[in-house]
Design brief:
The complex is a heterodimer.
Chain A: E1 6-15, E2 18-28, E3 33-37, H1 44-52, E4 59-64, E5 67-68, H2 74-79, E6 82-85, H3 97-104, H4 114-126, H5 143-156, E7 161-165, H6 173-188, E8 193-198, H7 201-207, E9 210-215, E10 218-224, H8 230-238, E11 256-266, E12 273-282, E13 286-290, H9 297-305, E14 312-317, E15 320-321, H10 326-331, E16 334-337, H11 341-344, H12 352-356, E17 363-364, E18 367-368, H13 374-387, H14 404-416, E19 422-426, H15 434-449, E20 453-457, H16 461-467, E21 470-475, E22 478-484, H17 490-497
Parallel strand pairs in A: 3-8, 3-9, 6-7, 7-8, 13-20, 13-21, 16-19, 19-20
Antiparallel strand pairs in A: 1-2, 1-4, 4-5, 9-10, 11-12, 11-14, 14-15, 17-18, 21-22
Chain B: H1 9-37, H2 45-63, H3 66-88, H4 95-114, E1 127-129, H5 137-142, E2 144-146, H6 147-165, H7 167-177, H8 179-184, H9 189-213, H10 227-237, H11 242-256, H12 258-264, H13 277-289
Antiparallel strand pairs in B: 1-2
Helix pairs in contact in B: 1-6, 1-9, 1-10, 1-11, 2-3, 2-4, 2-9, 2-10, 3-4, 3-9, 6-7, 6-11, 7-9, 10-11, 11-13
The chains are: A alpha/beta, B mainly alpha.
GO molecular function (chain B): transmembrane transporter activity
InterPro entries (chain B): ABC_transp_permease (IPR001851)
Subcellular location (chain B): Cell membrane
């Protein structure tokens, strides 16, 4: 067996007076798939950074392959066969997969004989359970393929113990299942042992065989996954904190707010068309668009936000034509929460206060203003930061310094302030920990109950089933299925998502 | 004895112009391509070019060897590049602002130190006649190819190969595309960028030496007509690909010869409009190859005007 076991013994890490990790002993046996569960700030990252040598533990020891190891920096960890896949990709976007693999080697040759290297890479790939195209620039790969390549890179470099830091936060559920299935296979084959940081129970039960749970820097539980239920794990993770339940539904659907007819546009690749013949969303209802990633949902969102030119067709909001200009959006109270809000809904280097005021900085009640009022902007922003529990050191720090969940909260706070008649959302809960997920879904439901029309695009079918009143399925750029959620059958939806109409 | 070639003069002059005028464009754009591939913009290459022209001319005059002149120009260019690279490695320094300062500094220093060399005559760089097969003097004149042009062509191919198949080349691309990935790999991005900027500066210096030692072949304060700046634009035009830099430099040289040629064949009206041909051409190609819905391909990820 190539895989090695790793153990931490009474590991403690203090930053000044703050104890990030306290007396933590975790054992990952060779060939096992071990999950490390915990909320944000529970000490998961601190633990693995100590293991990889980025931090030096205040006290405690590490055993690698049953021998004591002093890991002073990441290079030492690498020579012992320890590797880590980070939450954000560390591949170089413009280099091809093959170039990325070869240059990451410590002993990359001075002059690269591509003929020879390609042969070796192909031989290496043939031994792997999954493949990635080697000759394309990494930026052309889908997120799932990039994550697979990150894992392949670690195997290529000869690592035998892998730490995965929330490997699925940038993946769609289908991609996540595929990648984790392969990782599990590699563990079963005895190629590697894995320690995976996550906060998704579903992934733990489906793929891991053992679990350790951290809360506020302490190991609070763990064991074999088969002995634990979701409720047990949630109990350990949250302690006595409350999990917010989805808000109850109330009120009935009203008049049509958003109508699309005969809308066509080019898709991202420029090869296919997006074609929406008919789509309507009424006041007081949530319409969900389900579909496998890359079937045109992203393009539809861009058409609705005005980021993508449409070739033909008409979009109407409350019966009047709508071109997504700022004035129209303001007049009809249209609000957006796009995916990757840091890039699609924020100016990353501007401050939190400025970003939170994008909707209102140039207005004075209903009139427009020329001179900005710094005090009003700051008051509004600090008010919203408090109400939506956005965690930031200050409202004057740049918004790209915030974590993903907090950017999401900040944008949601901005978009949901004031009257909302139409809310258009895409994948609102990607990569968020689950207390944040519950809170964001509650806010969306509240907007619906207050009479807003909500259109939500999501690749998470559970989310769609929980939130929506009506489900549409998008496949190959078209809407192929339309059913009230109460009558919906998951198998039937899955059938249409896969394109078998 | 001149042979009357009629309108054949025009394509001939364009080819001759392409070969003669393109060399400084070629060297500066190769240097800038290297620097930008590492994630920095050096706008100071115009200054480096002028200083290279002066120091090359001075060294050639003082030693009697044009090749020692080229060497001196390369060294002084590397010094300018090194200075730019070091300054830009300090925190919160903007490479474009530093570049503009370096451009003015380079020209100022060249004019200051170059005063005594305006009068003397330095030896010129040798050229090879590839027109031996023809009896027509214009063909022979057009095919006088300077050795530096040939070196530049070889350099373009070598750089293309370097970016593709050597560790150094891949490291430059990694650093230019993602500082984070480079750090995760244990590389030192600042060091790589300093080296790339210094070597890029040396190339620009050699381009300057060509101006003063071959064509036009003398040192004066008006020696550069903005080749250093145009070459920076050429790099974008060539999408950071050294082979495309070579093609773009030839195209620019050829287009630049259009105006004078039309004038010489007796077009008296509007020929001066053709002096703008290279710039109109650049604009045209950039517009045609751009797209409102697609991002520019090939641009190094770390290039930014807000660093």
């Amino acid at each position: 067996m190539k895989a090695i076991g790793v153990e931490t013994v009474h590991m403690t890490m203090q930053f000044g007076a703050f104890t990030a990790l306290e007396d933590c002993s975790i054992k990952v046996s060779p060939g096992s798939f071990h999950a490390l569960l915990g909320e944000n700030g529970a000490g998961k990252s601190t633990l693995v950074k100590c293991m990889m040598g980025f931090y030096h533990a205040t006290s405690g020891e590490m055993l690698v392959d049953r021998r004591e190891a002093r890991i002073t920096d990441p290079k030492v960890a690498h020579t012992l066969g320890l590797g880590m896949v980070y939450q954000h990709f560390t591949l170089v976007p413009s280099l091809t997969a093959a170039e990325n693999l070869v240059i990451s080697r410590e002993d990359a040759p001075r002059i690269i004989d591509w003929c020879n290297e390609h042969k070796k890479l192909q031989a290496f790939m043939a031994r792997m359970p999954f493949q990635v195209p080697l000759d394309q620039p990494v930026q052309a790969l889908a997120a799932g393929e990039k994550q697979k390549l990150e894992i392949l890179k670690q195997l290529y470099l000869g690592r035998r113990f892998l730490i995965l830091d929330e490997p699925t936060s940038v993946l769609t559920p289908a991609e996540a299942d595929e990648v984790l299935g392969h990782v599990r296979q590699l563990c079963e084959d005895g190629e590697i042992s894995v320690l995976m940081i996550t906060h998704k129970f579903r992934e733990v039960t489906a793929f891991a065989d053992a679990v350790s749970v951290l809360r506020r820097g302490k190991l609070v539980g763990g064991g074999r996954v088969s002995d634990l239920s979701h409720a047990d794990m949630a109990g350990m993770m949250m302690g006595d904190a409350e999990i917010s339940k989805p808000a109850p539904r109330s009120g009935a659907a009203g008049a049509k707010v958003l109508e699309l007819s005969g809308v066509t546009a080019r898709d991202r690749s420029g090869l296919r068309d997006i074609q929406i013949d008919r789509l309507a969303v009424r006041a007081g209802e949530i319409v969900g668009i389900a579909g496998i990633s890359g079937n045109g949902q992203m393009e539809l969102m861009e058409i609705l936000t005005g980021q993508r030119p449409r070739r033909s067709g008409e979009i109407k909001v409350k019966g009047t034509p709508y071109d997504a200009t700022r004035n129209e959006a303001r007049a009809h109270n249209v609000r957006y929460l796009p995916e990757e809000p840091l890039f699609n809904a924020c100016a990353p280097r501007m401050t939190v206060a400025e970003n939170m005021d994008f909707r209102s900085f140039d207005t004075n009640d209903r009139q427009s203003r020329f001179w900005l009022s710094g005090r009003n902007m700051r008051n509004r922003a600090s008010d919203l930061v408090g109400k939506f529990k956005v965690q930031t050191t200050s409202i004057d720090s740049p918004i790209n310094a915030l974590s993903g969940g907090n950017v999401q909260r900040a944008v949601l706070a901005r978009e949901l302030s004031g009257d909302v008649d139409l809310l258009i959302i895409s994948n609102p809960c990607f990569g968020l920990d689950f207390s944040a997920v519950g809170e964001i879904r509650t806010r969306i439901m509240q907007a619906r109950n207050a009479g807003a029309a909500v259109l939500i695009m999501s690749e998470d079918l559970d989310e769609i089933m929980e939130l929506t009143d009506r489900v549409l399925v998008m496949s190959e750029g078209r809407i192929t299925y339309d059913v009230p959620t109460a009558e919906a059958d998951i198998a039937m939806i899955g059938h249409h998502m896969a394109g078998h109409a | 004895m001149e042979t009357d070639l009629g309108l054949w003069v025009i394509p001939l002059a364009i080819i001759g112009g392409a070969i003669r005028v393109s060399t400084p464009f070629l060297f500066v754009s190769l240097g800038e391509a290297l620097t930008e591939r590492s994630g920095r913009i050096n706008l100071g290459l115009e200054g480096t070019l002028v200083f290279g022209a002066m120091s090359g001319y001075a060294a050639a005059y003082l030693t009697g060897s044009p090749w020692l002149g080229v060497f001196a120009a390369a060294i002084s260019g590397a010094m300018f590049g090194l200075l730019h690279g070091l300054i830009c490695s300090l925190p919160k320094v903007n490479d474009i602002a530093v570049g503009i300062a370096m451009m003015i500094l380079g020209m100022g220093l060249a004019f200051y130190f170059g005063k005594p060399f305006v009068q003397p005559v330095a030896p010129n760089l040798p050229s090879i006649g590839f027109g031996w097969w023809s009896d027509v003097p214009q063909v022979r004149a057009a095919l006088q190819v300077n050795v530096l042009f040939l070196i530049g062509a070889v350099l373009a191919v070598a750089m293309w190969w370097m970016f593709r198949s050597t560790r150094v080349g891949l490291i430059v691309r990694v650093v230019g595309d993602s500082t984070d990935a480079a750090r995760a790999m244990g590389l030192r991005p600042a060091l790589v960028r300093i080296c790339a900027t210094a070597v890029g500066g040396a190339f620009a210096g050699v381009g300057g030496a060509y101006l003063s030692l071959y064509y036009p072949g003398s040192w004066n304060e008006g020696i550069s007509s903005g080749q250093g700046l145009m070459a920076v634009a050429l790099v974008i035009f060539a999408r950071w690909n050294p082979l495309a830099c070579f093609g773009a430099a030839l195209l620019f040289g050829g287009a630049g010869a259009l105006g004078p040629t039309l004038q010489s064949v007796g077009v008296s009206e509007g020929y001066y409009l053709f002096f703008a041909a290279p710039y109109v051409l650049t604009l045209g190609v950039l517009i045609v190859t751009s797209s409102p819905t697609r991002a520019m391909t090939g641009a190094p990820g770390e290039l930014s005007i807000t660093k």
